[in-house]
Amino acid sequence: MKNFGFIRTAAAVPAVRVADIDYNVTEICRIAGEAFGKEISLVAFPELSLTGYSCGDLFAMSSLVNGAEDGIRKILDFSRGKAMTIVVGAPVPYRSRLYDCAVVIRNGNVKGIVPKTYISSSDSRWFASGSDFLAAEVRNDGALLNNGKDIVREGYCGEIRYAGQRCNISPNMLFGIGGCTFAIELGDDLWAPVPPSSLHALQGAQVVVNLSADKEVLMRERYRNSLISQHSARLSCGYVYASAGFGESSQDHVFAGAASIWENGDCLAGNKRFSMTSTLTVADLDIERLDNLRRRSAIFRNVSPSGTDAGTYYRLYNRISLGAPCETDFSKDLQRYVEPHPFASAADLDYRCEEIISMQVIALAKRLSHIGCRTAVLGISGGLDSTLALIVTAMAFDRLGWSHDRIVCVTMPGFGTTSRTKNNAWDLMQALGVTSREISIVPAVEQHFRDIAHDQSVHDATYENSQARERTQILMDIANQTNGIVVGTGDLSELALGWATYNGDHMSMYAVNADIPKTLVRSLVKWAAENTFDSMKGVLLDIVDTPISPELLPANDKGEIQQVTEDLVGPYELHDFFIYNFMRNGYSPEKIFFLARKAFGGSYDDETIMKWLRTFVRRFFNQQFKRSCMPDGPKVGSVGLSPRGDWNMPSDAWSTFFASELE
């Protein structure tokens, strides 16, 4: 069973009884059994969940502390024979001090104990800080020194006998489950100026587990989620958060039982707070994605694990292998949402559309003002890409205070131009008040066919590319005539697939859409229609609904578009999904196919997905030479193809290795 880099995790919030250890152990084991039935590899319970967090001065009673140790023995017995790791909160005594700890349990063994580092002023009444275990003074050769010379701070693991077993106790421990390495912090550790998990991540922890008992106050949930989101994004890590819930004392505080699982800033799953029953929140973390994001991050790479005082403080880490993950059938039931439209998801789409267009507008305005040119020249086809480019150009001219008549728009009908696109082009130009020209390319292309002795009835690449290059020549020459620049219209999806004529529509003097994938182009034009250009909303929405086509082949008998791009190269929603997951997440074609089946299972069958994925791999590699000399254009998202800063790939790289995964 292939795991595709995923590990199934859970944040469990049991309903507890304060100081009733037997009841709590029973409930913890019940929930853990439910988790095992769901093929979960790692389940985390809240801080001090074995006793209840709100025991107060009862923590000073040996009966409670010893009872917690007996409770751990019962959980050990329950865990035998199960390939699942359980992390549970318990008070642990060590050398006449008491520590607020996470106990890591696997298959009948205590694999390690992690004490809380940052103790709140109220909890310091009972608990000591885990920093006690990080204070050994050693010389570089390892010998202890008393004279204070040449002393460095080194990580230190204490050894403890607990629940009948020997194990290490220290904050600086890492735990391995197959290819996943996780670390633990507790409660207030997350809120520290430098959370321990920052250092854990630099030492290789891809997942952080937080056992918490956060006291709920107004707006706390929103702030907490913001903190976890930012923290998991900054560390490119998974974050499993489980906080104490119903059953904790409400004498002075409310415990809402928040549980959530995060990945690189995104919440994969969260429970409903204030539940009076136990909850189990489950999500599949993508360890491969997290590793890929870290490897691609220059900032993450350039922070040395021991390059700061804090890093030196935590220099020695123990990584304890816990064995293989649970046998989880991810192909049957993947516990995470797979976004089919990663560039144009519904979440915050209005905000992102406004932001992207604003970036395009200010970028073009800067280029126009810097050059000091008089005009901007665009080829207007009545299709999506040229429409977006014209919208951006008009808004840039507005920002500069320039008249729209300095925007020179040229519609260039050819052999495949239909009345629908031509009429939309004219309606668009007239509505914006630009300088409009119509130049048919048919006579010039026919002359060109005669010059190169090409049979016009042969509708091959020469037939199509001659038209594209003629249009580009016209635009470039008009730009020379009018002291302007040609604003490019091609988008990121076309560049990724090489669906552009080299030195034809591939070329311009500034490419405003070069970082915008096709699915997002459609969303941006629709957003502009509904939010900015109400007077031409009808024509913009009709352009959105028009089939995507270069219109290089003659129309059919009804005068309708015959050359539909997506019939030839594949659906753009599939290709944009492939582009994002290949470039942003670094996934293999095999994993992309696996995820595409999850995302598009109701829309495309396996054969169709595989067909167009093969096309993507082949074209992406074969067409790199076009991207190696693409014009300037503004970067607006996390995926870009500019050879100057985004995608650096040799034009003669082979696709064989990647394509072989799909055979």
Number of helices: 21
Mean pLDDT: 91
CATH hierarchy, class of the largest domain: Alpha Beta
Number of strands: 22
Specify the CATH homologous superfamily of the largest domain: Carbon-nitrogen hydrolase
The biggest sheet amounts to: 7 strands, mixed
Q: At CATH's second level, what is the architecture of the largest domain?
A: 4-Layer Sandwich
Distance between the termini: 18 Å
What would the principal axes of the Cα set say about the shape? elongated
- Rg over C-alpha atoms, rounded to the nearest angstrom: 31 Å
As a percent range, the share of strand residues is: 15-25%
Helix content: 25-40%
Helix-strand category: alpha/beta
Number of domains: 2
As an assembly, this protein is single chain
Q: Which fold name is given in CATH as the topology of the largest domain?
A: Nitrilase/N-carbamoyl-D-aminoacid amidohydrolase
Strand order of the largest sheet: 15-14-13-12-11-10-17
Note down, in words, how this protein is organized.
- It is a single chain.
- The chain has 21 helices and 22 strands.
- It is of the alpha/beta class.
- It folds into two domains: 316 residues, Carbon-nitrogen hydrolase (Nitrilase/N-carbamoyl-D-aminoacid amidohydrolase, 4-Layer Sandwich), CATH 3.60.110; 312 residues, 3-Layer(aba) Sandwich (Rossmann fold), CATH 3.40.50.
Question: Topology, please?
Answer:
Blueprint (H helix, E strand, L loop, with lengths): L5 E8 L7 H17 L4 E3 L17 H18 L5 E10 L2 E10 L2 E7 L20 E3 L13 E3 L3 E5 L2 E5 L3 E5 L2 E7 L9 H7 L4 E6 L7 H16 L2 E6 L15 E5 L2 E5 L8 E8 H10 L1 H5 L6 H5 L4 E4 L27 H23 L3 E5 L4 H17 L6 E5 L7 H14 L2 E4 L3 H10 L9 H21 L2 E5 L3 H6 L12 E2 L6 H14 L5 H9 L19 H4 L3 H13 L4 H12 L5 H17 L1 H4 L28 H5 L3
Parallel strand pairs: 1-2, 2-3, 10-17, 11-12, 12-13, 18-19, 18-21, 19-20, 21-22
Antiparallel strand pairs: 1-16, 3-4, 4-5, 6-7, 8-9, 10-11, 13-14, 14-15
Helix pairs in contact: 1-2, 8-9, 8-14, 9-14, 10-15, 11-12, 14-15, 17-18, 17-19, 18-19
